[in-house]
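haha ok so turns out i had the wrong file open the whole time. this is the CORRECT one, sorry everyone. sequence first:
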Amino acid sequence: MNRLMLFVAVLAMVVSVAQPASAVPPPPSPDIGTNGWYHLQSEYKGRIDDVKGWSVTWQVPQFNNGTEAWGAVGQWFNNLETGIYYTSHEGWWVYYYADDDGLTGNNSGCTQSWTVGGHCHGAMENLAAGKQVTFTFQWCDTNHVANVNGTKVCAWVNMNDGVGDRFLAGDTPPAGNREMYTHDVETFGDSRIVEPVIPCGKPVVMAGQRIKNAAGQWSNLTGDAWNFHDTNPSYEYTNVNTAANPARWESCSSAKKVDTIGALRTGEALVYLRNSITAGGNDIPGFTVTNPTTNTILVGDWDGDGVDSLGLYRPSDISLHLRNPLDGTKSRDFAYFADQFMAAGDVPVVGDWNGDGKDTVGSYRPSTSTFRFRNSASNGAPDITYVLGAVGDTPVIGDWNGDGIDSAGLFRASTGTFYLRNDLTAGTFQSTFKHPQINANDIPVVGDWNGDGKDTVGSFRSTGHTFRLLQDNIVSAAMYPAFAYGADGDRPLVGDWKLDAATPTTGQFANTYGYYVNWDSAAQRWLNANPTDSRASTIRFNVAQQSAGKWFGASSGDVGAAVKSYVDLAAVSAGPTGRVPILVADNLPGRECGRGTGAGAATPEAYATWIAAFAAAIGNRPSVVVLEPNALAALDCLPEADRQTRLELLAYATQQLKAAAPRAWVYLDAGNPNAIAPAVMAERLYSAGVANVRGYAVNAGSVYPTNQSTTYAQSIYTALNDGHGLLSRFIVDTSRNGADVAVNPVVDGEWCNPSKRKLGAVSDLDPAPKAYNTPRGPDMVLWVKEPGVSDGPCGSAPTVAEGAFSPDLAVALINGT
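then structure:
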């Protein structure tokens, strides 16, 4: 395949999305989508015809979400590709691709995974993060011997294990096809595969390149030799040093852990957290913790979702209690005794001791200056034990060198001196310095204040409740401006309280938040008015206590005020981070083409004003938005002149939501499985701006089962991916699709208060996307429509007005009658 032609062709079709630059499908499953997407790419600027050999050395990165992510790192040279490849079930291994001459005579240790390439075993698989691997291309003869006048291009790999270069493959490049570029981060165009989270402490490292000239001489590549391309805000080049000889650079995920501060008020058992290192009020509403006068409150990222949360150490029974959501005293995700690595009098310490992105708890014994660290949230013998410092020192934990692994340091109050060591072993300290403004009674604090991946120290003075934070761990380090936060007597807390990933995974979204239950829903209002009704208990449990969509339209009045009020309620609901509201925008002119459900906005101009206010009211709050149910499925019912207007209005809506509500997950409605052919719906979605939002919704307000809806949604995904290179996600409305269709088949066109339907799965995210060989489900299943609310005077509720709650409808859905 002519790789350059594919790259240019797809780029011409879709400028705004990541460029597909590989046809390598994730082996061994041939049903996975075949496009690879190069998010970071460096292209050699020199004359490629003059290059007779090229070597690239990579350092293997770490994927923090390696149990679900796939990815690759590699390079192309004159139509032949090599690199390292990661799958969630096999880890890192060497591969080659695009050997169009056939695989006979290639490395026998490589299994044929594609007709033009393979992945390799033995010393070339199970590669650990941090290992260096060197790939070399050279022009060669038909016997695979390097020859500057050869007609083939051959590739070798050196595992830096003493064996030397291992031959991989040889290919005759097409005439005139000259290419020489790296793809530093590659992911795959399939909705079942999760993009990797690459910590900047253990990044992709391009450790050096060499080129060979026509005289057969090798030299290091340095200077202004590359054009860099970054097409995905989720990843970035860092530490680029083209002046080095050889040049080197790194690549990692853009979302940075940036620590801020908080205050623990022990007398009130309250925590107040702030999202900046400045004076001011708490950004997260105060919440209670359990007995902080007797228990030790801990901060850590226990699940690797990028957000710190709280835990506690109970010295009375030497037990640990850790919770993933940031919401105080609710049930613990991890609760265990710790007596095998802690004892009475030990100080609990928190860190990521193995670089897996998850914090665990260890201990420090002041009487012997001994650290004991454990790599899992469980009791057991310590994984790491060593002695460091002197009796009387205070332990401090941080990632001092940005390698993604926390290590220990000490603060000696008598001299105001910090002693920091980068390794998890006894030995000398790499950094020793005094804080210029610390007192003996100040409390040392540690955090990554600027998101550079390296922790630095600071101090908190209880009297005056003042933080003094250093910008570096050296004697002459500058300080951030000192600031006061909290009250005298507070204890300092440090952590990253925000989910600030540009494109969070469903796992991050699910673990950090959760859905808002509307306590002013139609079902709840009916319950308030009918507390003794015999149906109240089952409606309360099965409907009112579940999360469902809140619909906004012409009847909402001032939509900006209505949406803001709802989002604000969700923001302070059920914990300090709030909950995610599910909002449905349903106000397009001509809404549902004669279904008798209201006309929507009076004019296109009125809708534009309305949707802009809707988006602005959401602001920066996490939320889920379903955009205009049935708008695209009913497009054909409009007069020809109005169809383009509708598409333009929807595109405008997606633009407004993207700009004004950047943390909203927005899904354009795509109808139900039997409404519109998937390929047709894909084109409508594209014209309506689906590229601006997270994806699309299926089955909104309808009754088709989840498996059928998912199949339909995946067909739309394929059409969007094949036609426009999009990687859109999708959701399924399950509010009325729980009936056994073998017993009560769905009748096409059945939508208005249908009988013999049943509640489906409650609103839920998919925090663990399916494995590569299982069709990936939706981002989430939602109750987009509130069960029990009438579609209008029709079907099984011929006298119930649209929007009114019917207990009979609700009970029928609960029972499936």
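Residues 1-34, 767-775 have pLDDT under 50 and may be disordered.
again sry for the mixup
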